[in-house]
Amino acid sequence: MLRLVSCYLLAAVLHAHAVEIIAHRGASYDAPENTLASVKLGWKRQADAVEVDVFLSKDNRIVAIHNKNTNHTTGHDGLVKEMKWSELQKLDAGSWKDKKYKGEPIPLLSDILATIPKGKYLVIEIKCGPEIVQPLADLFKKANLAPEKTTIISFSYDVVLAVKKKFPRRMVHYLSSLKKDKISGELRPSVESLIQKAIDAKLDGVSIGNMGFDGAAENDQLSHYLKKLRNETKKRNFGLYAWTVNDPRIAQALISHGFDGITTDRPLYIRNRLK
Fold first, then answer.
1. The domain that contains 68 carries what CATH number?
2. What does pTM read for this prediction?
3. Deepest in the core among 111, 162, 180, 275, taking most CB within 10 A?
4. Domain count, the chain
5. pLDDT per residue as tens digits for the range 130-161
């Protein structure tokens, strides 16, 4: 369990370092993920940003959904890349969460962009390949969307390379899952390799996953890793973000390590417990 940050220290950290709260797939703890209902609830629950996952449909429409198969949220067995928008929009992406969301459709990214409030931004996680970059460029141009209104993220290094090349003025972050090597016992990826990838691709930040965060502060190995990662990102003015954190104690520990943002399914719950 975490070594809890004292109230005094936490207050000092929050005062000196504004931490962004990012709603993961919208306010997905209470609403169906990656839907307009979840996105709007995320804004309502005081998220600084909302994160959504996107794929490209067969007819090059950018849709918000996490898995390549629609079955996860709709019950319909179909690959997004093999379905046209006219087919996708008929699917029910809400009933699985709660009957009150029955009929909630898979949304277009264009509809989600239209919800971004003043002073907020959207985090777009690309779940497919670089083929989405040009349709994304076309959409941004059509929407006349300022660079500061989006951050684009991906686990695919090929994708972040292509995205940053296409959108040099937009924030682009590389996603990585933090894991312990079963043989060496060392945490992977190494801080050095993660930072070097960000440098080589001319990125703006990194975001690491919550594998192992349950021991974030009292585990000396993990604490050392996070401190080193913060130092290296700070040197290069990179953003440092964590996903997906729903435990306030873990969020506090990560903030004490200097993280710039916390991605969570429960934005208001986490924010209230960090006060």
1. 3.20.20.190
2. 0.93
3. 162
4. 1
5. 999 999 999 999 999 999 999 999 999 999 99
